[in-house]
Write a structure and sequence with these properties.
It is built from seven helices and 18 strands. It has helices at about 10-15, 50-60, 100-110, 130-150, 170-180, 255-265, 285-305, and strands at about 20, 65-70, 115-120, 155, 185, 195, 210-215, 225-230, 235-240, 270-275, 305-310, 310-315, 320-335, 345-350, 370, 370-380, 385-400, 410-415. The protein is an alpha/beta fold. The two termini are about 40 Å apart. The strands form three sheets. Strands 5-4-3-2-1-10-9-6 form an eight-stranded parallel sheet, with helices on both faces. Helix 4 links the parallel strand 3 (about 115-120) and strand 4. It is about 20% helix and about 25% strand.
């Protein structure tokens, strides 16, 4: 693993851990996941739009940032852009004087939630899309409007769907970001500073590598984009609370158990989680969705309660975690010191006095480790690794750390004691997010 180091902005983003996605637009009113840019703006007419309630629901669920689809692939703009008539300015909503982006920006600022914007490179409405040079002018103007009109942005989301094989003037596009929003994370395209995890199920897998030389382009093809060299690019896991990205009346939110499993396999694996909350045709997040978020947050808080901090004493080959007294727990959290880059590529946790599973450990010493046999093992640790364990009582734990070159270090460790009855949540068997390509 190349020891590239994160920028301060990348580390700040990683520490946010959890954000909300808002898919809202002309599709919401047409029952579509994908539309082709021909649905008339007259269809866009939310009757009770309340962006403050979107941000509040996200924040109460634990989200620290929120990303709005300012323009999806259909080209309909949620702000009154000067580039096209295909926008809220041509809709009956607020008699054409509304601006969804402004409403969301103001709500985020008021509630202390970071704002990010999604601006689709693919545009199925713009007549100039078939002329790459003309469309680059068009797109740069749209991006400039968003980067200069709505305050600080913490992320710009460039979705690769529909753009495989299309060349955009990324040097010019990213120059707009660098000039006006230099601290914003750039998602997956152009000159990315963060990357897509590669699926729409919201799931990372072990190892979660922060240093890569390629990014996946889209859910709908097997293509990926080379980066010419390795870069420090931590992943973001995107998934919808419902099956679809946009609201549909016959859809419903995922179960609390499903959402818990997603959290453990995203944030708990060292990746960021971006959970989509689709508003309905009223312009509100449905009541059952808000209730499900509250249930999920309450159970997550219960599981990650009763924290007992460990002292971390490093030594050759790992670290010893010490507690003030013997503690009974079933959740263990490890955090890597990323100041010198991601270095841990393998870790095994051992308990004292033979506590643990003889089947886990270092094969080189017959499964036994320093002070006992293995409790749990994994590959990367990263920003935050949460292990769910059978109930364990211990005063000390020993962590063997392996990596390429100099070994990594833990910046902190803790155990959670508040929900000893909590079972390991599971993804429903056979579940896959919708992967149909657009017509």
């Amino acid at each position: 693993m190349t020891h590239l180091t994160p920028t301060p902005a990348q580390l700040r983003w990683q520490h946010l851990e959890f954000g909300a996605f808002i898919h809202f637009g002309i599709n919401t009113f047409a029952g579509k996941e994908w539309s082709d840019g021909t649905i008339p703006p007259s269809k866009f007419n939310p009757t009770e739009l309340d962006a403050g309630s979107w941000v509040r629901a996200a924040k109460e669920a634990g989200a620290r940032y929120l990303i709005l689809t300012a323009k999806h692939h259909d080209g309909f703009c949620l702000w009154p852009t000067a580039t096209t008539d295909y926008s809220v300015a041509s809709s009956p909503w607020r008699r054409g004087s509304g601006d969804v982006v402004r409403d969301v920006a103001e709500a985020c600022a008021e509630q202390g939630v970071g704002l990010g914007l999604y601006l689709s490179p693919w545009d199925r409405n713009a007549a100039c899309y078939s002329d790459p040079a003309a469309y680059d002018d068009f797109y740069v103007q749209q991006l400039t409007e968003l980067c200069t009109g709505y305050g600080p942005l913490m992320e710009l989301w460039f979705d690769g769907a529909g753009s495989v094989g299309r060349e955009y003037d990324w040097e010019r596009i990213i120059a707009v970001v660098k000039e006006h929003q230099p601290d914003a994370m750039i998602f997956n395209m152009g000159q990315p500073t963060i990357r897509w995890v590669g699926n729409e199920n919201g799931l990372a897998s072990d190892p979660v590598n922060y240093v890569v030389d390629r990014t996946s382009d889209t859910q709908y093809t097997d293509s990926s984009s080379g980066l010419r060299a390795e870069h420090y690019l931590p992943p973001e896991c995107d998934v919808s609370l419902r099956r679809g990205w946009f609201w549909h009346p016959d859809d419903e939110p995922k179960s609390t158990e499903h959402l818990l499993a997603i959290y453990y396999q995203s944030v708990g694996m060292g990746a960021n989680l971006l959970l989509n909350l689709p508003p309905d045709t009223r312009g509100l997040i449905p009541e059952q969705d808000v209730a499900r978020l509250q249930e999920w947050k309450a159970e997550l808080d219960r599981r990650l309660s009763g924290a007992v901090e460990a002292t971390v004493e490093h030594h050759d080959g790992g670290a010893t975690l010490g507690f003030p007294a013997a503690v009974t727990f079933n959740q263990l959290e490890l955090v890597e010191d990323l100041s010198s880059g991601q270095r841990i590529t393998q870790h095994t946790v051992f308990g004292d006095d033979g506590i643990g599973d003889p089947g886990i450990g270092d094969p080189g010493v017959g499964g036994a480790g320093p002070g006992g046999v293995g409790l749990v093992e994994g590959k990367t640790v990263g920003n935050r690794r949460i292990h769910q364990l059978p109930v364990v009582t211990a005063k000390r734990l020993h962590v063997k750390l392996s990596g390429e070159g100099e070994g990594g270090r833990l910046s902190s460790a803790r155990v959670y004691t508040g929900a000893l009855d909590a079972a390991v949540p599971m993804i429903p068997e056979g579940y896959e997010a919708p992967t149909d390509a657009p017509d």
